[in-house]
Amino acid sequence: MTLLFGHLIDLLLAVSLTVLAWRLLATSDLFKATVLFIAFGLLMALAWVRLDAPDLALAEAVIGAGITGVLLLTALRHLDSGARVARMSGRSGRRSLRVLLPALGIMPALLVLLCLSSPHIRSTAGLTASVIERLDQIGTDHPVTAVLLDFRAYDTLLETAVLLLAVVAVWSLHPVRPIFSPEPISPAQRGLLRLLLPVLIMTSLYLLWRGSHAPGGAFQAGALLAAGLLLLLLSEQRLPGRWSGMFLRLLLAGGFMIFLLVAAGALVGTGTLLDYPGGGASWLLLSIEAALSLSIAALLATAVIGGRPSDRSTEFPPRRKDPAGEEG
Amino acid sequence: MILADFLLAQPWFVWLILLPLGGAASTFVLPRRVAPIGFCCALLILAGAVFSVCQLTATGSLTQAAGHWSAPLGIVLRADGLAVVMLATTAGVGFIISCYALGYFPARGHEPSRARYFWPLWLFVWAGCNALYVSADLFNLYVTLEIVTLAAVALTALEGGAPAVGAALRYLLTSLVGSLTYLAGVALLYAGWGTVDLSLLSQVLTEDPLSRTAMALMICGLLLKSALFPLHFWLPPAHGKAPAPVSAILSALVVKTAYVVLLRLWFEVFASFDRAMTAHLLGALGSAAIIWGSLMALRQERLKLLIAYSTVAQIGYLFLVFPLAGAETAATVWTAVILFMVAHACGKAAMFLVAGTIQQTAGHDRISQMAGAGGPIGVLAVVFALASVTIIGLPPSGGFFAKWLLLNAALATGQWWYCPVILTGSLLAAAYVTRVLSWAFLDVRRNVCPVSSRVMKWPPLALCLVALLLGLAAYGPVRVALTGAPVTGHVLVEQRP
Amino acid sequence: MNDLSVYAAAGILLFFIGLYALFFRRQLLRKILAANVMGSGVFLIFIGLVKQPGQSTDPVPQAMVLTGIIVTLCFTAAAIALAIRLKELNEEHHSATRPEDDFG
Predict the structure, then answer these.
(1) What is the CA radius of gyration of chain A?
(2) Best mutation target, C71, C87, C93, to test chain B (most B CBs within 10 A)
(3) Which of A207, B407, B430, B488 has a CA 20 to 30 Å removed from the CA of C41?
(4) How confident is the model at residue C4 (pLDDT cuts 50, 70, 90)?
(5) Where are the beta strands (DSSP E) in A54-209?
(6) To 5 degrees, how large is the angle CA A176–CA A180–CA A183?
(7) What distance in Å separates residue B251's CA from the closest CA in chain A?
(8) What is the pLDDT of residue C77?
């Protein structure tokens, strides 16, 4: 009976995901599309739970729905103001929509039939057994963390490079635009922030520590901390000018550089990339994760803020008190 | 000799990944010392690449399993002939472009932010390229492709104007579609066979609707990323509107990355498949790219767009390898395509660097108004002509040798219809180069001879000389390229039709 | 056919819906949303095809999808920064000259 119920939930979830995606891409109101996208992210998190991937559920909820949602809402403010909407030249949508819809509908159907009828699906054992039988050689008990930080640590190193690269790319475009902040902030808002912020910090530290034996880890913890940093932004806390230079850059690049140094050190020591000394002691992995999550939090928050600090040592991001002027 | 043994034992191909990554992070953290750090990095990477080549010729292909975890659980890095040749090419061309960029992006000029962000982004591109060439893991290849793409997109937008930013955005979205399609293929392969390692997959993969779908998806994604006709629409605006050193990086180095992944997939993972139709399709698209790209280049009014369309055409030659790699011709086309990539990298980078100098001194890059470019003697035009020798494929350049090998392979496999395509491509290349040079050599009196930075003068010339001499000294690169290659046979230098 | 393949099927549909919207919708923000939907589709395909009923999910694809989520986020952030900058530059251009609608 519960099995049938489970099948029903899966079917419902899959159908809602598809329908939600179609709605959010078909609607003409960009704000509605963004909100639907955040809902889509939360439904994806549920799908990951059903697929027995709790690390992915945590990551999707914080990053996919949370950080991406904030990014999109910020973009909406800049892109959707007034009649000028940023668009790329292309054919008009309507006519080609109707003509190509049936043609494009056949391709996915064919693909579904092709893939799912192959005898090879689910006939291979996958790598779960290999990971679990080697877990005791590594300083962590959680399989996904073991894969991320040890078996495929090189991928994680490159992934951290992509994060740093994203911030460099965003900074290369334009100095930071002032963020409009209303004054004064309401007492209800202040009280809520005072409540939420410690909870966020504690939860992120907990997730970081928990990643060594249960779902959690550096990326989820870092993203949660980034959400906390963005909340601070809402409560008008700004990074003072003297911290927005070298200190900020060291914070952003620090996690990646520490990871890189460990990799280089292992290369010098044993001649193999990322061959941790002692087979990967838990304190080493935890310290790499801690440095990474701090950096990831700073990187994600900076990516949302969207511009490089100006050279004049003003606070980062600067305030704009004038609501009547062009919204920054 | 102890020092020699020590040097030979170092895993240089891994250092070539860590060095530029460290350089990129350092240039980001220390923006005031961007130029010295960047130049030192470039020098060290060049040294490392030279050591890598020596190591390959002495000991053969090297592999390393990251963290001592071998496949399928871990990631394997492999430095075979293809990887080392591409590492060396990227190092050589990259070093010369770095020297040029020292003059083009002055760190103390009125726009210091361009220099400050060029170096971290360029070092990220370099790191991504190096990591891609040595990787033997499909998912790791995806991550390295993303590093290269994101950094290249940001470099394209460095120019600052609306056309450049628009071109960068189109590049980003198109590339993203390509990567996601490739990743979908990787997902299907893992679901069916439980591994993403190249050598393991080449052993266990069977032909199946699932794997054929995966192959189709991965090829489509990589075609989009390597700008094969008709999926090339994003390339000319991006390469034409970027700053000159960036265009050189994009055309000479970045376009080859997705293609190298495709080479590895074709010759290793999917080697046992029956893919005659796909091969002919890729050959047909490659031929169309050659003709179309060259014709479009003839019609261009601006020099950098002309060179960008020339890249579209040259990419077509690369895709002729798939129908021409028969049983006896496999080694020939493998060598041909590697030589072609090296020669094209040198020649195209030289062309873009010259175009950059012309644009800086003349203030624009319109071909019809280029008379007297670069001074009364037209020195820059001479360098441009030298660079185009390898693009057209005249002896003794590397481009000539590569096309000669392709012609031999076409005759040996009986696919003679590729010969007129190759020859027409050369003729059209000669046509558009002549068009550029005919304007540049006009005798026009100029009152003021504009001065460009001294360090911007010799790099294009150095690159041209390398491309020219490649045909003469081809034995060395050919031997390196065939080390550890997944093809057997010998190189057909002479073929009677 | 296993019931969990329903997620893989949804993933394939999401991939094509996203691909389609990316090419045929003109607004930049919508293209970025479409790319994100495509990415989610690929990740669902990955885990949906790998998941076997009654066993814990393979950790290697989970790590790969986590990496994919982060990389997609990085691309989204860069794309949004580029789109905002593009709009700013176009507005400066429009206030300086007469309005025109295409570029790039």
Answers:
(1) 23
(2) C71
(3) A207
(4) very low
(5) 179-180
(6) 140
(7) 20
(8) 96
- pLDDT of amino acid B272: 86
Helix ranges, B105-161 (H): 112-134, 138-156
Q: How far is A269 from chain C (nearest CA, A)?
A: 27
CATH number at residue C39: 1.10.287.3510
How far the first Cα of chain C sits from its last, in Å, is 47
Is the CB of C48 inside 8 Å of chain A's CB atoms? yes
Tokens of A246: 């070298």
Contact between C42 and B183 using a beta-carbon 8 Å cutoff:
yes
Q: Chain B residues with CB inside 8 Å of A260's CB?
A: 18, 21-22, 25
Kindly state the tokens that stand for A55: 């690390």
pLDDT tens per residue across span B409-429: 898 888 889 999 999 999 999
Coil, strand or helix at B396: coil
Cβ neighbours for B94, distance < 8 A, ≥ 6 positions apart: B42, B45, B46, B126, B249, B253
Residue holding tokens 């880890």?
A217
* pTM to 2 decimal places: 0.93
Task: State yes or no: ipTM above 0.90.
Answer: yes
A100 vs A189 pLDDT, higher one: A189
Q: How far is B67 from chain A (nearest CA, A)?
A: 4
**Quick one: A7 exposed, middle or buried, by C-beta within 10 A (0-12, 13-18, 19+)?**
middle
Neighbours of A114 (CB within 10 A): 16
pLDDT at B453: 66
Residue B289 near residue B315, CB atoms below 8 Å? yes
C5-24 helix and A2-26 helix, angle to the nearest 10 degrees: 0
User: How is residue B90 written in tokens?
Assistant: 């990227």
Contact B387, B351 (CB under 8 A): yes
Q: How far is CA B112 from CA A80, B94, B104, B322, B497, in A?
A: 32, 21, 11, 46, 59
Residue A90 pLDDT > 90: no
